Amino acid sequence: MNRKVFYSVFQSMHSHLFLLVVVAMLSLSAKQKTKKLMVSGTITQTSDYCGGASPSEALLQMLRTPQALEGKKIFVRKGTANDASKKVITETLSDANGNFKLQLPAGVYCLVFEDKSSDFKTPQNDKNNTWDEACLKAKYAKCEYTFTLKNKFIEGVKVNYHKLCSFRNPCSKYSGPTPP
């Protein structure tokens, strides 16, 4: 084999090997960037006392004590605020013990409940309720939980859903009758 042919074959092999190494490195880099980390936690619920006879202190304490909430959907958006212009990345449902798990790439995330997962809408005023739109928008923008995933998983996240009475919403003025 003459020198020119040998050099040409060597150069061709070298170019192909170089391309193969570059493709392998890019592939590995892409896999590292999309590595997903686990986030796990528990969704609980507390409630207001919404009427009837004067409650006992034991009943009030029970309503204030977080209880595991089964079947509660939680939605995930990127960032530190619930911004409807950012799409929901994923959602999950709590199990019988209120537990949930998510797998996400590194980043900053906002967890919200279902009522804040779609576009913001101000409720219509009616004969009993006058709604404060600025208050509602501020409440909508607030995440139930915010976290940053870097290089390790997060466990033990606690997210509480507080069930309000319809006549005690902090963003409305209620002027109707108190429930029995």
Describe the structure.
With 180 residues, this protein is α+β, with helices and mostly antiparallel strands. The protein has two domains: 1-34; 36-119 and 144-165, Sandwich (Immunoglobulin-like). The chain is built from three helices and ten strands; from the N terminus they run αβαββββββαβββ. Strands 1, 2, 5 and 9 form a four-stranded mixed sheet that branches. A four-stranded antiparallel sheet has the order 4-3-6-8, with no helix packed on it. A two-stranded antiparallel sheet has the order 7-10. Mean pLDDT is 86; it is low at 19-23.
Radius of gyration: 27 Å
Largest sheet: 4 strands, mixed
CATH class of the largest domain: Mainly Beta
- Tell me, briefly, the overall form: elongated
Helix and strand run: HEHEEEEEEHEEE
Low-confidence runs: 19-23
